[in-house]
Specification:
By secondary structure, this protein is an alpha/beta fold.
């Protein structure tokens, strides 16, 4: 058997296949060809190539489908997948990123780029194989039942063992743990970060389960991706008492919160929470075993849903009180010039009270939308921001204020006092469009934006590079600033597809005479990658945390970006 890496080229165009083989000849590879998606999947599953080059538009099964199938199965998930296509816009690259593709090549090919990128993936495969001891190959059917983020089995995979325990022991205890506000976490930090968060949560749950119950079985919820089940033997333990179950649930919840806060210190405390429900199954021979197990799981998850509903009612009361008493805080997060780290301006942020459940800005506004309190919160936030802005000298700084897309058409907003203040201080203010829902008519919306532009107010599009801020929106609205989403900035230095996406956004911004702002920078690697790719402006905790008031004087720069003292500006 050859020691040379195997490269599968899946394309129904023989000319493209031959061209790629010629380009990749210096890498000393063996090649195999597939002419359609079904053949590509079959070859990849049987021969396990180091790299698969997948044409997106293939007969029988698209490259998207083949990529998704390979990445969904543990046995083939480590194969490096490169999508090959004549279409390379942001939407297509985002699709590839979401499906787990490792890289992206756009026709017509650049020889040097093809060789460089495939060589990097082959080397990564070699390194990975050298560091991983040989493990038994699982059957594909079983591998489908492994949760990709955590590596845990899902419930169907452990069901037979649970039935055995139920017959042998006569009873089983169940704990159901669900991540609170998981959608908000994924929306703010991106799916890659959330996968890591879920993985860490699964590790803590596994450690706690085994510490309490040596024979405990921990499984990921097949339908959720954010929840877990612990199954354990209760016979001969104190856990026959309801009070003991409740104590265990509270202990596990607090352990998870404390551990995850320690492992993710940059997340706001209010963002990390868990719901935990418990149940016990008593064996009943007249009822099918599978149904008993699933009924017990349903009982535990129902307890969580009840807790979630109670929590939502409590949060709604708390939010109404915050709005009624105007208990919001306005903060200013510095935005710095990538070239010399001078402070360009500030994003105006609104948070709830420090000791409340709404310390995190994203949770505050997402929950307000969910409970139909968005305009009441927006009005209070604008009022508080305006009061703060009037209290200091604006100097030559820009100030970016988040505004939901639907607010631009609200008459109450268009005549709001803050708009008059921004108009009176032309050139200082930017409305940052947060597009949480699709804009139905770009011509009408562009007219609304032009109304604000006529008052000297600039426009930024938030989350550029996400599903909301599409190229269509950017082209139609011609913003003055593009904010590159945190999901692209995270791990940017290690992911070629993200680098290509950011590079495209930078090029697009240049064509429409807009500036780019990268947000969520938390590591030196992200900082360096953004500067290398030509981002104009930078924002994130690595540079500066939100401040109660913009600082004044030349010392402002040194104070604001003190975290970067070890990184010398170029």
């Amino acid at each position: 058997m050859s020691d040379r890496p195997l490269v599968l080229i899946a394309d129904d165009d023989d000319d493209v296949v031959q061209l790629l083989k010629i380009y990749l000849r210096p890498l000393d590879c063996d090649f195999v060809q597939a002419k359609d998606g079904d053949e590509a999947l079959a070859i990849a599953q049987t021969r396990l190539p180091a790299v698969v080059l997948l044409d997106v538009m293939m007969p029988k099964r698209s490259g998207w489908e083949v990529c998704q199938a390979l990445k969904a199965v543990q046995r083939t998930s480590q194969i490096a997948v490169v999508l090959v296509t004549g279409r390379g816009d942001v939407k297509d690259r985002l699709t590839g990123l979401q499906l787990g593709a490792d890289d992206y090549l756009v026709k017509p090919f650049n020889r040097d780029q093809v060789v460089k990128r495939v060589a990097a993936l082959i080397e990564r495969q070699r390194t990975s194989e050298a560091n991983v001891s040989e493990i038994p190959v699982q059957r594909s059917a079983d591998a489908l039942l492994i949760d990709r983020a955590t590596g845990l089995p899902t419930v169907p995979m452990v069901l037979d063992r649970l039935k055995e325990i139920l017959i042998e022991q006569g009873e089983i205890g169940i704990v159901y743990a669900d991540i609170e506000q998981f959608e908000a976490i994924e929306a703010e930090y991106g799916w890659a970060f959330f996968d890591e968060f879920v993985k860490r949560a699964g590790e803590v749950i596994g450690e706690e389960a085994r510490a309490r119950f040596p024979k405990a079985i921990v499984a990921a919820n097949l339908r959720g991706g954010s929840s877990f089940f612990i199954f354990f033997e209760t016979r001969g333990t104190d856990y026959r008492q309801e009070s003991a179950f409740d104590t265990m649930a509270n202990d596990l919840r607090q352990k998870l919160i404390d551990s995850l806060r320690h492992q993710f210190p940059n997340m706001q405390q209010g963002q990390i929470g868990f719901f935990v429900g418990v149940a016990r199954i008593d064996y009943r021979p007249q009822i099918r075993l599978e149904r008993q197990v699933y009924q017990g799981m349903q009982t535990a998850s129902d307890a969580v849903r009840d807790a979630e509903q109670q929590r939502k009612k409590q949060l709604a009361r708390e939010l109404r009180d915050i709005i009624r008493r105007r208990r919001v805080t306005t903060l200013f997060q510095p935005i710095v010039d990538a070239k010399d780290l001078s402070v360009f301006g500030y994003e105006i942020l609104t948070r709830g009270p420090a000791n409340s459940s709404f310390r995190n800005s994203d949770m505050l506004f997402s929950f307000a939308r969910e409970t139909h309190l968005a305009w009441g919160l927006e009005a209070v936030s604008l009022e508080c921001a305006l009061r703060r802005l009037r209290s200091f000298d604006l100097k030559d700084r820009k100030f970016l204020l988040n505004v939901e897309g639907e607010m631009f058409g609200q008459s109450e907003f268009r005549i709001h006092e803050v708009v008059s203040f921004f108009s009176a201080n032309r050139g200082h203010f930017v409305f940052e469009l947060t597009e949480r829902a699709a804009i139905e008519d770009y011509a009408i919306f562009r007219g609304l934006l032009d109304e604000f532009r006529s008052k000297g107010i600039e426009v930024a599009i938030d989350d550029a590079g996400s599903g909301y801020a599409s190229l269509e929106a950017i082209a139609a609205l011609s913003p003055d600033y593009l904010k590159v989403t945190k999901g692209l900035v995270s791990t940017l230095s290690r992911e070629p597809i993200k680098q290509d996406l950011v590079r495209m956004l930078v090029e697009l911004a240049g064509k429409i005479n807009a500036k780019t702002i990268a947000e969520g920078i938390e590591t030196n690697e992200e900082y360096e990658a953004c500067r290398d790719l030509g981002i104009d402006l930078l924002q994130g905790y690595l540079l500066a945390h939100p401040q109660e008031q913009p600082r004044s004087g030349d010392a402002e720069v040194a104070q604001s970006v003190g975290a970067l003292t070890a990184v010398a500006p170029r």
